[in-house]
Amino acid sequence: MQTHDLVIVGAGPVGMALALALKDSGLDILLVDARPRGAARQDPRVLALSHGTRLTLERLGVWTQLPATAIETIHISHQGGLGRTLLRAEEYGQPALGYVVPAGALAGALDDALASTGIPIRDNAAVSGLAGGADDVIVSLADGRHLRTRLAACAEGAIQGADDKPLVEHDYDQHAVICVATPAEPHGGRAWERFTPQGPLAVLPCGSGCAIVHTAAPAEADALLALDDATYLAGLQEHFGTRLRFAGVGPRARYPLLLRYRQDPVGQRTVWLGNAAQTLHPVAGQGYNLALRDVWACAQVLLRAGGDPGAAETLATYARERRLDRSGTIRFTDALVRLFSSDAAPLRHACGAGLLALDLLPPARHFVAKRMMFGARAWP
Q1: Rounded CA separation 342/328 (Å)
Q2: What share of the chain is helix, strand, coil (3-state, %, to 5)?
Q3: Which residues form the FAD-binding domain (predicted)?
Q4: Which residues 6+ apart lie within 8 Å of 285 measured at CB?
Q5: Domain span at residue 114?
Q6: What confidence score (pLDDT) does residue 354 get?
Q7: Taking residues 220-232, what's their average pLDDT?
């Protein structure tokens, strides 16, 4: 049985980032992934990356390899309600509030950087189970083989491990229909977050186009996929009126949306990161940003502790340091979806008034902007 210091389950953008953050740690690291190597390069989604995430990707040495589109302004509005909020990067002395990057391009840059380190990836190796003990974790593979490691990091896909700790789950009864649209005029680095009774509608600058994340009930998502391009484009245009015009739209795809998270991201010689720890609604684009903050903090805790990476006190330190940001981001995104997806007139007008107040009160607006850039602690 092969023995390692750290086995990372999942060679996607989260798992590869953890391996890169620990490349000089002296740990014997192995990544295992159920897919062929490089499969994550084909991911058609786009990611909204915060300014804080850019800083971390710079530390990992991959930022300059990414085709990033800067978000200079974010326009937040509520369909059917008064009020709107405008966030501007120039107010915070930053080149951008965030960036939009194709998920496949990010995976490719991380994979290329990982290849130069010599850290191995075992592909086509699905993990069927984890068994944590006092001194090690036995990682069982679907082909019947086993690995022994001092620490297992579950970094992708379904939440893995023993079900001794309950999961919190909530189905939003929404699907995200995604595509790339062509704006009639240059987007100017502006992102739009439009709250509708069916769910949030995000338009993100992506290259010369706009990435669309269109939230809808499952049946409506079916209908949106079945529409021809012209009809879908007309409906999209109706959500924005004259403030934003589109000239064309590309192929559409869909993803179900839910909230699912582990209350405790650590177990016996095991840590859960990324979607294996929490799956968030894409509103405000916080999913990968939270995951990368978790990755960087986990790596720093392991580097400071030295010695046994799976020691109980080391994992407890990580969980304690991440409690505020993790719980705050989960609650922040969940509250946004629940509040702004209601079609009740009093709540709709209250949300509109809240957006207006946010725009008129700089301290409150700055708090929201800094939370989006750096997480719940609101500093880099």
Answers
A1: 22
A2: 40, 30, 30
A3: 5-324
A4: 47, 48, 49, 50, 98, 202, 204
A5: 2-167+258-374
A6: 59
A7: 95
